[in-house]
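tool_call: predict_structure(chain=1)
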Amino acid sequence: MRFNRQVFLSATVVVLMAIAICFRFFGEIILHPNEFLFGADGDGLKNYYSIAYQVIHGDGLWFNGMLYPYGDHIIFADGQPLLTKVLGWFVDGDASNGGSVIGIMNLLMIFSLVVCAWCVHRLLVWNLVGPWFSVPFALCIAFLSPQVLRFPGHYALGYTFFVPLGWLLIAAFTRYKLPWITALAASLIVLGFGFLHPYYLFIFVIFLGAVLIWDLVLNQFQFNQVKALLPRLFTLLVPLVVFMVYQKLVDPYTDRPSNPAGMYSLMATFQSIFTPTSDPFRHIFHSYFFRLFIPTSWEGSAYIGMVSVFIFFASIGPFVKRVLRRGWRAITRPMLAGPLRQAFVPGVITLLFAMGLFHKLGLYWLADYILPIKQFRSLGRVAWIFYYIIGVWTVFQIYVFYRLIRIKGQGKYTYFYSMLVVAMLFFWTLDAIVNIKYVKEGIQHRIALNSFSSKVVTEWENAGVVIEDHQAILPIPIALIGSEKIGLEKGKRSSEHSLAASFSTGLPVIGGAMSRTSLEVTEKTAQLVADSLLPRPILDDLKDGLKLLLLKTNEETNLEEERLIGLAEKVFENEHYSLYSVSVDEIKLMYSEIHARAIDSSAAISGGVRFLTPINSFAVSEDKLWYQEAYDVKRGSRLLDSVFQQNELLNLSYWVKVDPMQELTPNRVYSVDEEWKIAGGIGSSPNLLDGWLLVSENLQTEAGKHHVFLIDARPGTISRILLRKADETVKWKESDGSVFVNNIPFPNRISEVD
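tool_result:
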C-alpha cells in the first residue's frame, strides 16, 4: 500500500487530540496514576489486588493470594496473566512498589482510548470516508465506547481498542495479499488478548465466525473456495484451541462449575443498545419514554449514541423499499464499502446473539454441545461488536450523503448540510462527554497507597505482630465467592481490609472472590466456618507450626466465626478492624472437644428417624445420600404442606446436591396462609459435605393456619428431609452403624456417596 500523506497527518491529529482529551478528563490521574483506585471496593479492589499481589509476591501464574492453602490459576482471579507476567519482569518484589503496578494498570486503560481512536479512524478511512472528515467522529466513537464503563472494576475488559483492532485484522484478509502472514499476526494478537481476559478471545471468535458464516451463505457454501477460507479458519480456531489446551494442561481441578449462572439473563436489551446508559440522559429516557421495555442489563451496555440511533431507525424505511425493489440482493450486496459490506450483517447477527435471540428461539440446547460457550455467561458483551460496526456505518452514511449533496446540488445545499453534520457531531460529542464524565465521577478514589503499600505491615509490626509466625489471614466474616453455587458474602469490609493487609504483608487470604472455583476447594474452605459437627479437613492442609491471623470487622458473623474469635488472642486494633492470632492446633483441639461433648450428650440415640418425602412434582433420583433415597424436585415441589395445631418453633433440614452442571441451587419459599415468611436462595450456607449442602431453616408455626414449604425456582436433587423441634437435639444410628446428629453424619468423616 502506497503512503498517503493526508491519512498519516489526519491519523496523527486523531492521536494527539485523543491524548489531549485524556488529559482534559483524566489529567490528575495521568500525572499521579499510582495514587488512584478506579474501583475502591468489591471487584475493583480485588482485580487490582490479584495482579499486584502476583507481581510483588507471586511466582509464575499460579495464584496463592486467595483460596489459601489451595490457590488457583491467576486467570480465575481476573489477574490478566500476560500483563502480570510482563510486569513481573520489571517490577521488584517489594510492597512499596505496589503503587507502580496500580499506576501502570490505570494508564493502560486510559491510553487505550488513544489506540481505539486511531483504530476507528483507520476503519473509517478503509471504508472510504475522508481522512479529515473521519477525525472528530473517530474520537466520538472511541470516547463513547461501552468498555469505558468497565474502568471502575473490570480492568481487563477496559482495553477499548480490542474490537476495532479485531475488525481491522479481519478486514486485512481481503485488503492485503499476504493472507497467511495476516492469519499468523492476527492469531498471535488475539491469543495475547485471550491471556489478558478470555472474553476477548470469545468476542473475536463470535465476530470472525459470523463473518465466515455470512461469507459462506453469500457464496452458497461453495467449499471449492476453501483455499481462500483456510487462513481465516486458521485465525478462528488456532487461538481458541491453543488457549483451551493450555488451560487443560495447567488446570489441576476437574470439578469447576460447567454451567455458570447468568448465561440467559446477562444479555443485551433494546434499552442497553438504543437508549442512553449514563445520566442525565439515562434518567430522562428510562423514566419517561421507555418504561414498557425490558429493564437495562448493565452487562449488555453498548449504547450507540443518539446520532446512530436516529440514522439507524431513519434508514429502516428506505431499506425496506430497497428490499422490495432489489430483493435478496439488497441484503447480500448492500451499497457499502468493503469492510462494512463484509461486517454489517454479521454485526447485526452478533447483536441478536448478544440479545439471546437464539436462546429465545429454543436453540439453547446447542450450548450443551459447545461446552466452552457456557463459561462465557455474559452474552451481552458481544454487543460491543455491533457498537463499533454501527458507529462506522453511521459515519459512512453521513459522509456519503454529504458528498452526494455537494455533487448533485452543485454546492447549493453544502452550507445547510454542513451545519447538519456539525449538529450531529455536537450531539455525538455530548454523548461521549457524558459517558466519560459519568465514569470519571466513579473512579476518583485517591487512596491507592492505603491498600497497595507497606503501610499495613508497618502498623502491625509497630504493634508487636510477628508476621513471620503466621501463614495466612482469615477474614471474619469470611468471604467466599466463585463457585457459582455457594456465596458467603457477608464479609465485604473484612475482605477489603484483608486484601490490603495481604498485599502489604505477603500473607495469603483464606477464601476470597475468584471465578469458576473448584467445588472441592469451596467445600473445604466453607467448612472452616460451617456447623461445628462438620469436618474441617482444611486444618490438616495448613502448615504446621504457623498461626492464623483473624481480621474481624463490625459485620454480621455466624456462631462458628464467633467461636474462632473467642479462641484467639487480640494483637491489633484500629477504627476499621480488630486483628487476632490463633494457632491451628488450638482450633483442632476446640473442635475435638465439641465433637466429644456432642457424642457424650444426654440426647438419646434412637433406632432411626422418619424422613419426609416431597408431596408433589418430584421423581426418585438415581442419586442417593448415605444410602437414603434422594428426589429430583422442581418449581412447585412441596416439602411441607400442613396445618399445625399449636404455635411452636420447628426446624426443617434437608440436603441439596451441589451439581456443577446446574446453574444454581433451588430457591425456596415458606408461607403461612399464603403469606411469605422465608424466601430466596440457599447458597449462603457454608454447611457442605460430600458435594451436598445442608439447608436448615427454623420455621415458626401458627396454630390452625396452613403452612407450606416449597421449591420456588430451579430444579435440584434433595435428600434426608427432616422436621424436628428447633430446641431439641435428635441423634440416631442407622443400619450401617452411622450416627447422625441433627441430620449431620457423626463422627465426622467423608462418607462414600452412592
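agent: The radius of gyration is 30 Å. Proceeding to next step.
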